[in-house]
């Protein structure tokens, strides 16, 4: 799939990941449906770059958990751009939650934002892709679909749900020329603060737990997304691709690759 003039729907265009993805995909000649809760305020600079690059953009603000609203929005957008060729679901809300004390409403809120939205978008966009016998769906998920955070169990549960949605969707839509894959992202800049925990040491000196002692960023994510959306990835379907630099392979802090100046405790 050549990305030139392909219609790409990004579910959270305001986020850091959404802005970097939009920037990188615009350079590939893509056109966009960008869901922006801020109505373009948070990503104004990116929108200007898209305009300068000649990328057509339809900016929307839709409740992704409302199936009829998503369907109506995509029908309107199709009149301007055509139907969606690539869905990138990158919703990623993290809040501190404990199994023993989490309020039910907060638990459901995180499941809705991170997982139900993925289901609704997959169902609506997937049917469009089935009809034209081609398409790409990419979930920007997390290593915490597999590894507990020690700080937000509801987040991990939501990403675990996306992990299985990815496999089920790939099994069905793959029969219609649609590839569905998940990127389990982790060990990127800022994760130590995002997943700070009182019971887990996973993110203590986390950069040195990456074998090469280099954490990732959203540019790394964008390069993998570009590949998964390309014709070169035609045989990649239903994959959970861990993009963490080898972070989850770490098992012994005493063997971390640390600089001589490092003063952290050996755990």
Task: Explain what you see.
The chain is of the alpha/beta class and about 270 residues long. The protein has one domain: Rossmann fold, CATH 3.40.50. About 40% of the residues lie in helices and about 15% in strands. The protein contains seven helices and seven strands. The protein has a seven-stranded parallel beta sheet with strand order 3-2-1-4-5-6-7, sandwiched between helices. β5, α5 and β6 form a beta-alpha-beta unit. α4 runs parallel beside α5. The longest helix is centred in the middle third of the chain and has 29 residues. The radius of gyration is 19 Å and the shape is globular. About 45% of the residues are buried. The mean pLDDT is about 95.
What key phrases describe this protein's structure?
267 residues; alpha/beta; Rossmann fold; seven-stranded parallel beta sheet; 14% strand
The helix count comes to 7
Major sheet summary line: 7 strands, parallel
Quote the average pLDDT.
94
Distance between the termini: 47 Å
As laid out across the biggest beta sheet, the strand order is 3-2-1-4-5-6-7
CATH architecture: 3-Layer(aba) Sandwich
Helical percentage: 25-40%
Strand content: 5-15%
CATH T-level fold name: Rossmann fold
Summarize the helix and strand pattern as letters: EHEHEHEHEHEHHE
Number-wise, the strands total 7
Query: Which regions are unreliable across 5 or more consecutive residues at pLDDT < 50?
Result: none
Task: Just give the CATH class.
Answer: Alpha Beta
Query: Based on helices, strands and strand pairing, what is the structural class?
Result: alpha/beta
Instruction: Name the shape in a single word.
Output: globular
Q: CATH homologous superfamily, by name?
A: NAD(P)-binding Rossmann-like Domain
Please give the radius of gyration in angstroms.
Answer: 19 Å
Number of domains: 1
GO molecular function: oxidoreductase activity
Keywords: Oxidoreductase
Protein name: SDR family NAD(P)-dependent oxidoreductase
Pfam family, one: adh_short_C2
């Amino acid at each position: 799939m050549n990305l030139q003039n392909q219609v790409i729907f990004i579910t959270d265009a305001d986020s850091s990941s959404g802005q970097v993805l939009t920037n990188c995909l615009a350079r590939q000649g893509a056109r966009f449906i960008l869901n922006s809760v801020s109505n373009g305020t948070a990503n104004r600079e990116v929108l200007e770059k898209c305009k300068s690059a000649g990328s057509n953009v339809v900016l929307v603000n839709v409740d992704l958990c409302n199936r009829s609203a998503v369907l109506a929005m995509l029908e309107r957008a199709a009149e301007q751009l055509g139907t969606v060729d690539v869905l990138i679901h990158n919703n990623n809300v993290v809040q501190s939650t404990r199994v023993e004390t989490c309020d039910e409403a907060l638990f459901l809120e995180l499941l809705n934002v991170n997982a139900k939205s993925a289901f609704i978008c997959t169902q609506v966009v997937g049917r469009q892709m089935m009809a034209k016998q081609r398409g790409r769906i990419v979930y920007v998920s997390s290593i915490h679909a597999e590894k507990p955070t020690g700080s937000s169990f509801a987040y991990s549960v939501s990403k675990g749900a996306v992990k299985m949605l990815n496999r089920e969707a790939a099994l069905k839509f793959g029969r219609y020329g649609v590839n569905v894959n998940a990127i389990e992202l982790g060990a990127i800049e800022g994760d130590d603060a995002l997943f700070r925990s009182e019971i887990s040491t996973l993110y203590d000196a986390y950069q040195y737990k990456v074998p090469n002692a280099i954490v990732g960023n959203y540019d790394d994510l964008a390069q993998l997304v570009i590949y998964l959306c390309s014709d070169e990835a035609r045989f990649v379907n239903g994959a959970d691709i861990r993009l963490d630099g080898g972070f989850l392979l770490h098992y012994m802090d005493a063997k971390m690759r640390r600089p001589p100046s490092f003063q952290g405790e050996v755990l």
